[in-house]
Design goal:
It comes from Hydra vulgaris. By secondary structure, the chain is mostly beta strands. It has 3 helices and 29 strands.
Length: 406
């Protein structure tokens, strides 16, 4: 049964909402969202939503068009929960899907048939654990300026893999995510079996993102709380490791406006902003003692970002405040929030929850960000001001201590 409704969320006019709801499984949990703003002659402004049953044995994909919010354009049924989805850039009718059982599949949404174009079920490189993220990545073809596209996936089996779809799904491993020495040593003390110890040497790859202009450079976040900067040219070692997080990484994104800046969120309750040359985060955002499940950059404002915990939606504007979000909303739902994305061509926020709903929040009266300052410079200024304020506090404390002693 499909239904749509529109209503006010709260007393101000900052957010309004539309709810997309599709009963695809009896206990369907919404797992992931992706958007495509240009699909050629087929249709424009598509929203693909991945679902999974609570036992992970069933999954579904619904593809919605903004031209028809009553019914999805396509519905695909799968034999495993969907964990990640992404539209192709060069061929936007192709939708790549990562599954809980470790498989990867590609669908052609232009076709009215629900058969997969290609999948990795019988591949020797099939992941042995859930595919937590996958993306289409543009790659150079030899020495020409022509670019092709591959699928890159990160999995709980500790591998970051690249897949070509020219002849079925052919794979190479870009990186095996070795655990840190400290964790390896603690695992060895537990006298694990040899096979278990072999598996445990690799850390689950939870999320990744490729550099906006350097196609061989990417970041990958792990269950250890580490962010590794890697190169497709070197699969034996990390170029750099960023270590400030104290819990599992859930989301990791380069800034669409400044390629020296990236952002991450974690189960340690924090959102952190980083610059490429520093291994310590330049700014930490925290508004609650809850894991931050997902984040996204605004496609139109360099200082605007969104985030979700299990029960709260947050909008942050770095130009306004780094202590608190400019907007914080707790939706009146029974389930938990699971996914968040900015719409590409409108002032809208797409939020998924564990009850299988996608809520489209139309944002109003959100303060605009200045366009005359680079994001990296903004972050450096914020950090400098924070250090100066900390210095004033320290000096004041020392002065008070001296006065007390005298």
């Amino acid at each position: 049964m499909q239904r749509r409704r529109a209503c006010r969320l709260k007393s101000d006019d900052s957010l309004r909402l539309i709810v997309l709801e599709e009963t695809v499984t009896e206990d369907g949990k919404l797992c992931c969202i992706t958007v495509e703003d240009d699909i050629g002659e087929l249709v424009q402004d598509l929203l693909a939503v991945g679902y999974g049953s609570k036992d992970f044995q069933k999954g579904n994909i619904c593809v919605w068009s903004v031209k028809n919010l009553e019914f999805p354009e396509r519905v695909y049924n799968l034999n495993s929960a969907v964990t990640s989805i992404d539209f192709s850039t060069l061929s936007p009718n192709f939708l790549a899907v990562g599954l809980y059982n470790g498989a990867i599949a590609v669908y052609n949404i232009r076709s009215d048939k629900d058969k997969v174009v290609v999948d990795s079920r019988d591949s020797a490189g099939k992941h042995g654990a859930p595919v937590w993220q996958l993306k289409w990545i543009l790659k150079d073809r030899g020495t020409t300026e022509d670019k092709g596209e591959v699928i890159v996936s990160s999995s709980a089996d500790g591998r970051v893999s690249q897949w070509s779809i020219r002849k079925g799904l052919e794979y190479i491993d870009l990186m095996r995510l070795k655990r840190t020495n400290t964790i390896e040593q603690s695992l060895k003390k537990k006298n694990e079996k040899k096979s278990d110890a072999l598996i445990s040497r690799l850390a689950a790859g939870m999320c990744f993102d490729f550099h906006p202009s350097e196609g061989n450079t990417y970041l990958v976040g792990t269950e250890e709380g580490l962010i590794h900067r890697c190169s497709c040219s070197y699969n034996e070692q990390f170029l750099e490791t960023y270590k400030d997080h104290k819990g599992t990484l859930y989301s990791l994104l380069w800034s669409p406006f400044d390629e020296d800046v990236f952002i991450s969120c974690s189960s340690d309750w924090t959102i952190r902003l980083w610059t490429l040359e520093k291994t310590e985060s330049i700014l930490t955002l925290q508004s609650s003692s809850k894991a931050v499940i997902e984040i996204d950059w605004s496609p139109t404002s360099h200082s605007l970002l969104c985030a979700i915990t299990e029960h709260q939606i947050e909008i942050w504007n770095l130009c306004s405040s780094t202590l608190d979000p400019i907007l914080s909303v707790k939706p009146e739902i029974r389930g938990k929030l699971t996914s968040v994305k900015f719409a590409l061509n409108s002032e809208a926020l797409l939020v998924g929850d564990s009850e299988g709903r996608v809520t489209v929040y139309l944002m109003r009266n959100i303060p605009a960000s200045p366009t005359n300052i680079r994001l990296k410079n903004l972050l450096n200024n914020i950090q400098k001001n924070a250090e100066e304020e900390e210095g004033v506090v320290v000096e004041t404390k020392e002065l008070n201590d001296k006065n007390t002693d005298s």
